Structures are given as structure tokens and as C-alpha cells.
Amino acid sequence: MRLRTWLRLHSTLVYAFLYGPIVMLVILSFNRSGLPTAWGGFSLHWYRELLHNEALLNAALNSVLVAAGSTLVSAVFGTLLAMGLERIARSLVLDAFVFLPMIIPDIVLAIALLSFFTLIELPLSLLTITVSHIVFNIAFVAAIVRTRLSYFDNTLEEASLDLGAPPLKTFFNVTLPLILPGVLAGSLLAFTISLDEFVIAFFTAGPSQPTLPILIYSMVRFGVTPDVNALATVVLSVSALLILISQRLGGTEGFF
Amino acid sequence: MVSPILLLGPALTWLVIFLVFPLALIFVYSFLQRSPFGQIVFQPSLDNYLRLFNPTVLRVFLNSLRIAFIVTLLALLLGYPTAYFISSQPSRWKNTLLVLVILPFWTSYLIRTYAWIVLLNREGVLSRFLLGLGLIREPISFLYNDTAIVIGLLYGYLPFMVLPLYSSIERLSPELREASFDLGAPPLRTFWHITLPLTLRGIVTGAIFVFVPSLGNFFVPELLGGGQRFMIGNMINNQFLQARNWPYGSAMAFGVMAIVLALLFFQAWVTRRTEQV
Amino acid sequence: MNTRKLAVFLMWLLSLVLMACGGAPSQPSEPTPQAPAETQGAPVETQAPAKGKIVISNWDAYMPGDLLEKFTAETGIQVELALHATNEEIVGKLVASKGKGFDVVFMTGQFADAMAKMGLLSEIDYTKLPNSANLFEEVKRIPFTKYAVPYTWGTTGLCYRSDLVNYEPDSWYDLLKPKPELVGKITMLSTDRWLLLPAQKALGFSANTTDEQEMQQVKELLIEAKKTLLAYDNTTFYSKLVSGEALLVEAWDGWCNYGIAENPDIRFVIPKEGSDLWVDAMVIPAPSENKEAAYAFIDYVLRPEIGTWVAENILYKVPSRAVMEKLSPDLLNSFPNLAIPPGELLKQEALQDVGEAQSLYSAIVAEVLASE
């Protein structure tokens, strides 16, 4: 029992660490002053600004589109890759190769991809950012899914196949439920990384459709105004609310 | 059972087109030279690689390794119990707690870092709080040193540790997890002999997820570290952007990648041996 | 098997597909209703005859918010706006894409200089820019203005809290070898050229020196100076002055004004050893396919009302007689460095690309930043 109490205490502190700066960030969204790191009094000014800041809201939408698109593709490709690596091609070289997209410094991948897109004359747009993000997201999803596949009990799958179930049905009925927490954790990570990725997005972005990080970093020179904090506060509140609702509706059984 | 082409095909095709081809270009650059104004001229040589063996580059690299290693260790110590705690919760709480780990990161990195600066600077919240309590007499700054960099990196990459750990711990049967609580057996022994080996893959994956980006990060050293600690990520970035010396920057990047790949290779070999025992 | 779990998973997958289809894959480069209306000029599309389209890249908020809309209304030229965060990044992007994709780009002089020397810029034909008559004659003598049309200009100096620093700093040595009470309360810029500048000038060298011996001395002075610094800071130094975390910082004149706007006790001074002259400018990449429209845009930006907006809102000096002579005395009173006369600015040294020596510069910057 002591262990359980200790775990709870430890986790509470870790969550406090994760949310400490977030509390600060929310407070700063009510900062009258436009300075990023100095307090100037309470104001709702930046929330009114946010409502009229179409550029900021559009950039946020662009970011969500890129993150969702790249997560979707890399969730599927990454999961298949993980199964392939674990079941069929057990090779150290391939293992290392799959980690490669994670190891490359952002700036190198960014310049490599832009040079490549220029070479094949692919016009830059949100699509090229999405394509680029999939490259490293595949690696993250595959690595997490593989943590569930090691020691994976193949007998269930074999039983299903022996009983005459087609492979696809076996995959959806037997394999997927077992690896789903990994797929979900991987997708969550991929989505999060893509949402806030700047360097590769900047180099592979077309005009007129900046993602949120591109817009925010371009604001640095003349001041990142607290309406960015206001936006973050709104995003966090809405997400937290959705989580709470799904947790209430979810009953006793979660979906993974 | 299932066709290897179906499993490996999509991802490997994607990686060959959008990773191998573009990188091949950069790999060629690494053997060429910078023109006086920052373009690439075709003078093949190994110069760029030889220039990696200078004291500044080596010191920067070793310092970065040291910091990335400390961050990884701390992330593991903070992350493992947290992941364990999450996976031992009733399933309706699991999802919620897991998403809550990553939710802070759906905000912009830059404004999260600004928030840290407001908390940690000499005139900041923490310093004033400690002054108010009378624990310190003079305001102190927690920024612009290695500790600030470690805190910043740890904060940024902790979820990268928790998610793979969760994924592997959650797989353990509830009975096994409960065993460590309820049976008379000392929990440490259960943990050491059963839990830890079974979750080794999660630990290794999480460690890589934290170690690799920490090594390459250039933003935390700049903002929280006050630019005073030059990390390998800053160095590579500067070669590409400030010096406009792509060939040398490429050589630097491939040098780092080779070392990290060697570490990963070693890790894969150890993991496989451990799992086969 | 639990079909409910499967159903939830499939719904999650489906929602992602729908989101992706609704957006990402169907985003061609032409304007869509989702793109920021303000930056698109879309509302006036029907009023004016279309005369082609140009793509420009700039920092966010560096020009009036309605400029593009008004420009399109007047000329019929559609403008797509891209945003960049730093000179280094936009130059990197232009080099990797061989200058393609942009018609007008805002960047700082020495970067334009390097781009021109790489052959990535087209020479400016000032006869196509009637409004360039507003520019000070002197600014056009800076060599790189052959390829870059000046937009704003200024210098770099010391920005400090006059209420907390009990003397008047006037030398780069106040920054590099500070009095004891300022130790640990000083920041310097971290971009290579501006990191080197204080030591280059303090030692009496050119800010564009390519002499190795001189640069060794610069390095030693900077390594020594690092020990008394609070931080290298390119982006929040004025905020540090306002909070009192720093008392004396190396700053661009315009950015010092952002501190002054919050705290009038903040002052700016050009050190007596001299400083640099920086020029932010507009360039036309060589591969641009719509140069006429690019000239029309640049000429529009050179109108005095745009320059006046920049001076009043960005608090930067504009190299235009028509603008500077009509600024309100109140503004100049609040932000005295806006009143620095062109003659004073032109005494400072314009930063230029140093060519071959850039490798030396980078190596020295790395050694300084990596020193303990």
C-alpha cells in the first residue's frame, strides 16, 4: 500500500511540473502589457484581440490540418511497419534505419526536403508540410507500437487464422485491440510533435498558409503579443472540457 | 501470414522517397566546399569531416552528450513511476491521465518557454516567492545556466518518455501489476526480475525519444540557457544558417548521426539479447 | 471480440480522414477562403482587374495591416504573403529553392549583399521606382542598394536603465568590461555579426574586417566579456530591461524603443567608438516571373504614408526625407533615437557580407559561445 501512495504523490508532483508553466501562460494571457515576460496588470484585452485576429485563428487551423493529416498517415504506415519489423524482417540495419528520421537534425531534414521538392518541382503548400511531417512521425509511431509487439503472443493470431478467419478479420479482431494502446500513444505523440514543429514546416511551407509556429516565430521580431497566450488558453480549456466529457460518457470502460 | 510488402511497403517507400533521396543530396554536399558567398562548389574532399576533429567541436559535442544523458536519466526517473501510476488506474481514468500528460504541449513551445522565463528569472515568480518566505535574502536567477537547460529539456521531452513507457507497462497483466502491491514479496524484487525486463523495450524507446531530441535541441540553450551553453544543435544550425556553410554543416550532422546510430545499434543488439534470454 | 472498441477506433480514424480531406490534401497554392482575408486581398478581387500575382515574404507586423488589401484594390495585383522569422532562415530557404517562389523579400542589408553576390537577386532599376525620390540620396550610395531597396535603417548601441545605472555609459567597454555593479546584468546580441560588433568597434577595427589577427583579438575580448554577461539575447532583451533583470544591453535602436515605450527611464546611446549602420531592404529574387508587379509593390511601399506608419508604429527610422521631416515632435520626444539625423547614421559603418571570411567569423563565434 505504501508503494501506491508513493506513486500517487510522485505523479501528482510530475503533473504539477507539467502544469506549472501552463498556469503562468494562462495568467500571462490576462497581461495588459504586450511584453512577453513582464507583467503590466490584468486585462481581457487580448481575448478581444484574438476574436479579430483572423490570421492567428487560420494559422491554428492550418496547424491542426497538418497535424491531423500527418498523424493519420503515419499511424497507419507506422503500425504496419512496426508489425513488419517485429514479425518478418528482424534486421538490426532496418531497425536502425527506421530511427533515422528522428536522429537527423531538423535543419538538415528541412533543407534536404526543400532542395528535393525544388528539384522535382513540387509546389509548396500545406501538403508538402504534411508529407514532410509524416517522415519523422512514422518513426515515432512505429517505435511506440513496437513496445507492445515485443513478447507479443502470436498464438491468438494463429488460432484465429487456423479457425479460418481471413487475415484482415484477424487483424481487426485480434491484433489491433492488443496493440491499440500503442497506436493511440504513438498517434498522440505524432499529433503533438507535428502541431508545434517549426523548422521543417518553415522550409516546406508555401506562402499564405502559415502554420501556427511559423506565424508565432515571425512575430518574435516585433513582439509576440499575448493573444497567442489567449489562444493557447482557449485551446487548453476546450481540450480539457472535451476530455472531461468523454471521460464522463466513457462509463467504466475506456476505449483502450 | 500477411504479405511483407503490405506491412513494410508503405512506410519504407515513403522513407526512401522523402528521406533517402533528399538525404543523399545532403550527403554529397558534405564532401564539397563552400564558395566565398555561401554556395556549394564542386571540390570533392574529406576536409569537412577532418575539420570535425577540432577541440571546439569535440567539446561542444561532449557537453551536449552529457546534458542529453542527464536529461534522459531524469526523464526516466520521473516518467517511469508516472507511467506505472497511469496504467494502474481504472481504465476510464487511464485515457484522461494520459492525454493530460501531453495536453500542455498543444500550446506553442515559444510561449511555454516565455512562461518559464517569467517563473525563473531573477525578478520572477519563484525568486520573489522564496524572498517572501525569507528563504533567500537576495533575489536569485534560476536561468542562464546548465540547470535551466536541463529543466527546459526535461520539461519539453518528458511526455516522450511517459508515452512509450505507458504503452509497454499497460501491456502487463493487471494481476502482475497488483502482485507487486499485494503479495508479500518485496515489490523491488518483483519489479527487478519481472516488471523491468518486460518493459525494457518501453524504457529503451523512451530513452531514445528523450536523448535524441535533447542532443539536437537549439532553442532551450538559446532562451533558457541565455546562449551561454553552445550545444551541438546550435552549432549545426549556425553552420547552415549563419555561416551558410552547408557542406561543413552536413558533415557535422552526419558525424553526429553516425555516433547516435552506433549507440542505437548497440542498444538494439543488447535489447534483443536481453529479450531472448 | 469487443466490437465497441473497434467502432470507437474506426470513428476516430474516420474523423481524422475527414479532417484531412477537408483540408490538407486539398490545399493548392491558390487562395482559399481559409487563408487570412487580411493578407489575401480577397475582398477586392472583383473590383479591380487582375494583373497577375506576386508572392512576398516579410516578418509579421512589419507593414501596415491593410497595406496588401489597399495595394490590390489600387493596382489589381494579387499578393500572397509568406512570413519569416529571421534573415538566416529566409536566406536559407531562398538558397535551397534557388530563389524561386518569391517576388519581393524583406531582409537586412548584409544578407541581401550575400544573396546578390550569389547571383540570386535581380538588379534594381530605380527608374521604375518613382517614389524612390523620397529616399535620402546618401543611402543609395551604400553598395548593396544596387540590389536592395532600403525600407528602414538604424544602428546598434547601448540601451540601459538610466534610473538604475548611476552614470552615463558611452563606450562599448561599458558593455564588455562593465563596472562591478553591472556584472551579471548585461546582455549582448547573439547573431554572429552583432555579437562581434562591440568588440570589433571597441578595438577600433572595421565591422567588416577580414584580418585574422584582428579577429583573434576580437575573440579574446569577447571570451573575457562573456564572464560578466547575464545572457546572449536576440529577442527579449528589452523585456529584461523593463523587468530590471538586466540594466544594460546591446540593442538595435528600434528595439530599445519597445523598452522605452514601457519605461521612459530607458535610454539609448551610440558608443563613442562608433557602430554599424543596418538597413532593412526589399529585394527581387532573380527567378521572379512578375518583376513589373514586384516593382509596383516596392514603389507602393516607398510612399511616404507607409514610411510614416513604420516610424510611428514600428518605431524604426525610415531613410526617407519625406517621412522623417514630418514626424510629430511628440514622437521624437518620446523616442529620441528616432531623431538621430541621417548624417549621424551615415558615419556608422554599413554591414556587408564578408565573403570568404564568414567561415572565420563563424568559427570565432562558435569558440566564444562554447567558451566556459
3D structure, described in words:
The complex is a heterotrimer of chains A (256), B (277) and C (372). Chain A is mainly alpha-helical. Chain A has eleven helices and no strands. Helix content of chain A is 76%, strand content 0%. The longest helix of chain A is centred in the N-terminal third of the chain and has 34 residues, at 54-87. Residues 251-256 of chain A have low confidence and may be disordered. Chain B is mainly alpha-helical. Chain B has a domain at 65-229: MetI-like (MetI-like fold, Orthogonal Bundle), CATH 1.10.3720. Chain B contains 13 helices and two strands, in the order αββαααααααααααα. Chain B has helices spanning 4-29, 47-50, 55-87, 91-102, 109-120, 125-133, 146-169, 174-182, 187-198, 200-216, 219-223, 232-241, 246-276; strands at 33-34, 40-41. In chain B, helix 8 (174-182) runs antiparallel to helix 9. The longest helix of chain B is centred in the N-terminal third of the chain and has 33 residues, at 55-87. The two termini of chain B are 26 Å apart. With 372 residues, chain C is of the alpha/beta class. Chain C has two domains: 37-152 and 279-347, D-Maltodextrin-Binding Protein, domain 2, CATH 3.40.190.10; 154-277 and 351-370, D-Maltodextrin-Binding Protein, domain 2 (3-Layer(aba) Sandwich), CATH 3.40.190. Chain C is built from 16 helices and ten strands. In chain C, strands 1, 2, 3, 4, 5, 6, 7, 8, 9 and 10 form a ten-stranded mixed beta sheet that branches. The model of chain C is unreliable at 1-50 (pLDDT under 50). Chains in contact: A-B, A-C, B-C. Chains A and B meet through helix 1, helix 3, helix 4, helix 5 and helix 6 of A and helix 1, helix 3, helix 4, helix 5 and helix 7 of B.
Q: Tally the helices of chain B.
A: 13
Beta-strand residue percentage of chain B: under 5%
Q: Provide the succession of SSEs of chain B.
A: HEEHHHHHHHHHHHH
The number of distinct structural domains of chain C comes to: 2
The CATH topology label of the domain at 65-229 in chain B is MetI-like fold
Count of β-strands of chain C = 10
- The CATH topology of the largest domain in chain C is D-Maltodextrin-Binding Protein, domain 2
Question: Can you give the mean pLDDT of chain C?
Answer: 87
Low-pLDDT segments, ≥5 res of chain B: none
N-to-C terminal Cα separation of chain C, in Å?
A: 61 Å
Spell out the CATH superfamily of the domain at 65-229 in chain B.
MetI-like
